[in-house]
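We emphasize that the prediction below concerns an isolated chain of 281 residues; any contacts that depend on oligomerization or on bound cofactors are therefore not represented. The input was used exactly as deposited, without trimming of termini.
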Amino acid sequence: DFCTYCIVPFTRGRVQSRDPESILEEVRRCVDNGAVEITLLGQNVNDYGKDLSGWDFVSLVERVATIDGVRRMRFMSPHPANFKKDDITRLANLPQVTPYYHLPLQSGDDEILRRMNRKYTTSEFAELVGFIRESVPNVAIGTDLIVGFPGESDEHFQNTFKFLEKMEFDVVYMAIYSPRPGTAAARQEASFVPGEVAKARYDELLRLQEKISYSINQRYVGTLQEVLIDREDKTTGKFIGRTPTNKTVVFTSIRHVSSGEFVDVRINEAKSWVLYGEAAD
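Result of the prediction step, given as a token string:
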């Protein structure tokens, strides 16, 4: 998929699916070395298998899920235009797949999406997110946004603002548009959005998302969350890990715990980007 702002297909070439048996063997080695969570990465993961016989991305996930020792699985990122409801249903039936889906939006305006060559509309995107939320209990949704794409008017931006407000994503990774030489968007120099305008729009969206994320995270206060520990903060003695929904948790523990360990944590405070709590045991 050649998005008009992206240089990746020109630098990496067409999609090439890695041999599935080599992936499965690498997962087994990771588990043998103590890994409990596996993340499958790709530019558009749902393109996996298009150049193979008898494989698609979900069938790969299903095979990884059969490997003993894999307790959590994540993947990123599927392209919204190619993410089928049947795929979501199959993924939802795998307990190892965490209830966090990262689904890149890029713009909340249909005209800008068309100029980006994203191949979906905001209504189609919203329907897809709605189906994920219906299919995956307590799912968290993350997305990406580009602010200040060439030709983005005030009206286009306001449409994105309203769409972001409506969708209530858990987290949004935002970037101000930056031209990549050789891409179609970079040739639209006459319609570039002034830097100070793009920055003001970025700040406005960030303030909105900070409020949305704060509101969503308040729902975690008082709950018990299974946290996979990433590391210990040596300066504070607190531990840092992530919930199945990919929320960062900073917590205290009476006993010493280690990276890669699962700990039940009682959440007692929530901010926009971080949850705080205490180990329950």
